[in-house]
């Protein structure tokens, strides 16, 4: 008997060892260099600096090796293909944009469901719609996407931009909109720009000088506004604004009546200078409206020489003012629509101003005339997010969309004269929204700040602490996280998951004060708010640490990286996407220096350096700590948040991770920051993310 027991113990030990061997991952070896930087007398090693060289063969080999390990791991998840099938079913519904009129034609975007890119159609009267631009034919793999589409005032000409491989660098192609024949005015090396036509003579656009070396990571500091006259070479284009002074974001637009060229200029993502030029003048001159970067102001409309401006100058929640173009400085501004306790967002159309207010991240909309007289409150179909209400002055019908976490985006046509609305396009999605519910709760942050959060789940879900939950956040750049539907989230809900989104500081849900409370030396508030949201979900038994995943992208990737390194015990899974993860060097890549308003930089002061060093994810991975199961996602052509952030973070985690939780990086090839990602690639990515999340939580099958 004793020998039999011993035999079974040996078998158990051997089996256990085999299982442990299978669960262990052999990561690619990542070479450590001896590079270091010194800040205010403190030396900071950067052993993986070589991964910043996106053009090197060594980096390319590292990317290939990491993907091989990642996909070998993901391939073992038995229900990954089932998740992909669910995503395809939910994604496979006809989607439309709101229509818009240019000349004699009405244009709209349509996707039949699983098309990689949406197609732009046009229609004249009651004739059958015809394809105008089909981005699916731009490249074989669907990775060349359509950017902006801008028509001349009479609709006879169009300039559209394309992005190749997800890059922020664009080409602009000019076409005769009537015959649909491409003209000989293709422009290259355009970045962060729309097209603004000056009659049919030419157009304004923005770009940087072509960087030396790698265009993926080289800094781009001097944005300029150019004018291109049709029929001339791009090398002859005239610089209208921008030069030696660093202005990282310069934009140009022309008012609908063609009278004013409006120029905005900024050194960061918050605050801008504002200029106008009267194009009807015999000798057009640049006139300064705002001469500093202290506040954000945009011209939204004009009544002849009267400019109508949306601004947060002396109004953290925004207001609408008016001023005569002959003397347009802020000292002459007068309120048209005063600031309220709720954050204001503005659109114009049909000769009206529409103010969308956020109250605890939920939309309400008021309609005004151009003289600031209240016409009515617009009746919305429910509690959620409304957007649109924009168009030309002579439009008689406007369109808006409405959505929330369980309601697919529905387009409504709105009669601005009567204030009535009807459904224009309602998607037919294979998702029964009546089976799910969203609740808004308010929880208390670390410093007693009250923070809203919307939690969505299947009705009847038992709050026993065992529900797989994704906590999603952003918390920066005054971006407001408002309720919206997505096919991936619907799939997560169908699989029994809970989806929670807190409106943490750094965002714009409560105006500029809320934003500033999560910037620079206040950035820790953002992380603390997110941690408090997780603790609320755990305390109230929505989930537990073993079933909690945290997710965010870009600035939200920073959020996830900081929280998982500060509180690795709090979650089971971490999903940082295209994250800003090296806070000492982020500003040395592409237009990253423009984010300094939110982050500060390591060079500006010793205090700022130490603060950034204290939370920078790349610099706070500690030896011997068991971090959550981590799937980092990025694109090898991301020229906004360069992939080196993710590469270096993955290398540190793989080197120092204790325990068995996997640390993987999924690097999408020929892809950028996310915009224009083909539907097929998005479905594959979400199948991997959800599969990894559930598998890491110990879930062996899905219903």
Low-confidence spans: pLDDT under 50, at least 5 residues?
1-22
Biggest sheet descriptor: 8 strands, mixed
CATH class value of the domain at 31-88 and 431-696: Alpha Beta
Measured between the Cα atoms of the first and last residue, the distance is 43 Å
**Beta strands, count:** 40
Mean pLDDT: 93
User: Strands of the biggest beta sheet: in what spatial order?
Assistant: 33-34-36-35-37-38-39-40
The CATH superfamily of the domain at 31-88 and 431-696 is identified as Alpha/Beta hydrolase fold, catalytic domain
Strand fraction: 25-35%
The structural class is alpha+beta
CATH architectural category of the domain at 31-88 and 431-696: 3-Layer(aba) Sandwich
Radius of gyration equals 26 Å
Q: What is the general shape?
A: globular
CATH fold-level label of the domain at 31-88 and 431-696: Rossmann fold
Measured as a percent range, the helix fraction is 10-25%
Number of helices: 11
Account of the 3D structure:
The protein has 703 residues and is α+β, with helices and mostly antiparallel strands. Among the domains are: 31-88 and 431-696, Rossmann fold (3-Layer(aba) Sandwich), CATH 3.40.50.1820; 343-428. 20% of the residues lie in helices and 33% in strands. The chain contains 11 helices and 40 strands. The strands form 9 sheets. An 8-stranded mixed beta sheet has the order 33-34-36-35-37-38-39-40, sandwiched between helices. Helix 3 (80-91) crosses helix 4 and helix 6 (523-539) crosses helix 7 (555-566). The longest helix has 22 residues, at 2-23. It is globular. The chain starts with a helix and ends in a 7-residue tail after the last helix. The model is unreliable at 1-22 (pLDDT under 50).
């Amino acid at each position: 008997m004793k020998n039999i027991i011993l035999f079974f113990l040996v078998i158990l030990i051997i089996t256990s060892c085999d299982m442990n061997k299978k669960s262990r991952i052999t990561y690619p070896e990542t070479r450590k260099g001896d590079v270091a930087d010194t800040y205010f007398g403190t030396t900071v090693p950067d052993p993986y600096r070589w991964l910043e060289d996106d053009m090197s063969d060594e980096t390319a080999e590292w990317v290939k090796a990491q993907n091989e390990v990642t996909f070998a791991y993901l391939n073992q998840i038995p229900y990954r293909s089932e998740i992909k099938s669910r995503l395809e079913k939910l994604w496979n519904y006809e989607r439309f944009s709101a229509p818009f009129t240019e000349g004699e034609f009405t244009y709209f975007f349509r996707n039949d469901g699983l098309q990689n890119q949406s197609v732009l159609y046009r229609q004249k009267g009651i004739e059958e719609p015809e394809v105008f631009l089909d981005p699916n034919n731009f490249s074989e793999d669907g990775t060349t996407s359509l950017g902006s589409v801008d028509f001349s005032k009479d609709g006879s000409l169009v300039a559209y931009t394309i992005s190749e491989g997800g890059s922020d660098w664009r080409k602009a192609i000019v076409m005769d909109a009537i015959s649909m024949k491409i003209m000989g005015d293709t422009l290259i090396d355009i970045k962060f720009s729309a097209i603004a036509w000056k009659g049919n003579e030419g157009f304004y656009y923005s770009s940087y000088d072509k960087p030396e070396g790698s265009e993926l990571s080289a800094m781009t500091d001097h944005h300029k506004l150019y004018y291109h006259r049709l029929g001339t070479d791009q090398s002859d284009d005239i610089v209208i604004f921008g030069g030696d002074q660093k202005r990282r974001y310069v934009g140009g637009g022309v008012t609908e009546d063609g009278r004013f060229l409006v120029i905005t200029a900024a050194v960061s993502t918050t605050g801008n200078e504002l200029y106008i030029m009267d194009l009807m003048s015999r000798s057009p001159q640049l006139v300064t409206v705002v001469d500093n970067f202290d506040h954000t102001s945009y011209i939204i409309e004009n009544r002849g020489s009267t400019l109508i401006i949306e601004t947060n100058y002396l109004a953290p929640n925004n207001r609408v003012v008016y001023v005569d173009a002959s003397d347009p400085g802020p000292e002459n501004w007068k309120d048209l629509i005063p600031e309220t306790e709720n954050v204001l967002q503005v659109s114009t159309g049909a000769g009206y101003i529409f103010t969308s207010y956020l109250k605890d991240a939920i939309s309400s909309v008021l309609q005004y005339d151009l003289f600031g007289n209240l016409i009515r409150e617009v009746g919305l179909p429910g509690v959620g997010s409304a957007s649109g209400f924009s168009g030309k002055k002579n439009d008689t019908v406007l369109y808006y969309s409405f959505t929330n976490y369980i309601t697919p985006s529905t387009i409504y046509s709105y009669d601005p004269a009567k204030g009535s609305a009807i459904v224009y396009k309602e998607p037919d999605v294979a998702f029964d929204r009546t089976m799910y519910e969203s609740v808004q709760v308010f929880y208390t942050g670390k410093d007693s700040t009250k923070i809203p959060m919307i939690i969505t789940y299947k009705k009847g879900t038992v709050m026993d602490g065992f529900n797989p939950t994704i906590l999603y956040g952003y918390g920066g750049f005054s971006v407001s996280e408002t309720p919206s539907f997505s096919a991936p989230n619907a799939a997560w809900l169908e699989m029994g998951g809970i989806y929670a989104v807190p409106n943490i500081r750094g965002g714009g849900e409560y105006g500029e004060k809320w934003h500033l409370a999560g910037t620079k030396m206040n950035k820790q508030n953002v992380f603390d708010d997110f941690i408090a949201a997780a603790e609320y979900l755990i305390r109230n038994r929505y989930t537990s640490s073993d079933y909690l995943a945290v997710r965010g992208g870009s600035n939200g990737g920073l959020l996830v990286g900081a929280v998982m390194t500060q509180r690795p015990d709090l979650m089971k899974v971490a999903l940082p996407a295209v994250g800003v993860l090296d806070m000492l060097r982020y500003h040395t890549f592409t237009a990253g220096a423009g984010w300094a308003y939110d982050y500060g930089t390591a060079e500006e002061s010793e205090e700022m350096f130490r603060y950034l060093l204290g939370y920078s994810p790349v610099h706070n991975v500690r030896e011997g700590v068991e971090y959550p199961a981590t799937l980092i996602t990025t694109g090898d052509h991301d020229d906004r948040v360069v992939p080196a952030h993710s590469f270096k973070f993955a290398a540190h985690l793989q080197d120092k991770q204790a325990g068995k939780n996997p640390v993987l990086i999924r690097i999408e090839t020929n892809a950028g920051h996310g915009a224009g990602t083909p539907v097929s690639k998005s479905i594959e990515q979400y199948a991997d993310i959800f599969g990894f999340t559930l598998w890491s939580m110990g879930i062996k099958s899905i219903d």
